Amino acid sequence: MRIMGRRRALVAAVVACLALAGCGAGPSQVGAAFLLGDRETTQAQVQQLIDNAVREQPAAQHLAQQHKLDSLGRAIVSQLVVHELLTQVAQREGLATDEKLISQALEQDPLATPVSVNTVDPSQLPNQIAYRARDHREAITDQVLLRTLAQKYFDKMSVTFDYTSVVSEGAGNTMRDKAFAKAQQMAASPEAAAQVIQADTATGQQTGVGERVPAVQAPDLAATVVFGTQPGTVIAFQPSSEQAAWIIAVIRQRDLSTPQAADQTTEPTANQLVSIGQRLLQPYADMDSLKINPRYGVWDPVAMNLAPSAAETTGAVVSVKGSAQP
């Protein structure tokens, strides 16, 4: 009975997670939407999903009337990139899918209900339509595997980083511009980050050195670019959409193998586990030479999805020049 109870709880978590999911140069092969290693997803495959969505989803028809189907294309390609990354990582990690769990989740299929433009955040509408346009078993399996990947590493994840911040705009520069420029400065050499942070500390800027954070202490942060980035790399991102401040950090250590102890631990939610699992895919996008067709946009490693252009990414990831990377 306990096993059945846990299974029902897990099915409910998967269904809830799906219901709430918000959870460079072009490819060399003509007709490719993107290339990932030796795997190709074609523009024809993406277009078929767009056509299916417009035919079956009133919300997609709404986007079409507003000439916003490009946002649906980006959402579809983003989800397919994550699917391909996850498929490869699951094989490398030896992750197994629970077919009974997936079948039970499909019985309650949250993707069978059309999206309502009146109840869904407009920014999440393309994602929600994309989930429904895809094969539902595939989409649900992805959610289960992302949770499984996160659970494998969550209590062993920690990062150590040094950081500075940008909290105001400059003359003619947005905060994003300032953050990106500072990221480039910090990545100029192995010593540059320490010099920039020292100078910012002297002027009263919010900074930190040797900040070590275990995932069990901060599940929200564990889902961000901080935990997905390799040592010897500078990142610039906004920790919260509700606050304008930008953080620019250099990752010093990233540990996925040491059980973490913390004075206060926080149990991650189902949605957080999916986001953490997706974040763990970040290094593999670089490793496998992900190439996106420019018609769909550019890969944004900070958001782990596509942005319309390089000028519209949510942050930056810059390798430190002269730094030895794993």
From TrEMBL:
Keywords from the UniProt entry: Signal
Secretion signal, residue range per the UniProt entry: 1-32
Domain of life: Bacteria
InterPro entries xref list: Trigger_fact/SurA_dom_sf
Protein name: PpiC domain-containing protein
Organism from which the protein derives: Amycolatopsis pithecellobii
